[in-house]
Amino acid sequence: MICPFCQSNDDKVIDSRASDGGKVIRRRRQCLKCLRRFTTYERVEEFARLTVIKRDGSHVPFNRDSVARGIALACGKRPIAEDAKRRIVDEIEEECIREYDREVPTRAIGLMVCLKLKDLDEVAYLRFATEYYRYNDLAEIQKELDALRARVKDTKDQTLLFPST
Ligand SMILES: [Zn+2]
Fold first, then answer.
1. pTM
2. Which of 20, 74, 102, 151 has its CA 20 to 30 A from that of 160?
3. How far away, in angstroms, is 25 Cα from ligand 1 center?
4. Ligand 1 centroid vs 27 CA: distance in angstroms?
């Protein structure tokens, strides 16, 4: 922590205590250069709630169940493990938060589902794309999927380059 008095970046914690019912940790610190004391507060970051922007422009909270329902409908009686479907929902929620922060267009979610179903089961993918996602032109989906795949790959490469971020 940068010392507010001398701007040195070398201190030690001399006391830590919880306050606000354990939601905040207050730390007394001492600068090792000028020896003056200062206080820092540590709290859990507010959970960013993920919002979905629908086709008509309205905002609704991200709902795992509705993503799961779309996937279940597309999978129908295909021999796909429940685990695999659940994993797709997990991955989509994660990707939405990572790539879109707080607001994700419903179309982007649909594309992510397409991309994942395509790797999992071609029939479920086509069903989702045409019936549940109202895509009529498969060439159009393919183009968007290629773009998305390139973007996801890009992000993964960056993650490898900067493992701490
Ligand atoms: Zn200092």
1. 0.58
2. 102
3. 21
4. 16
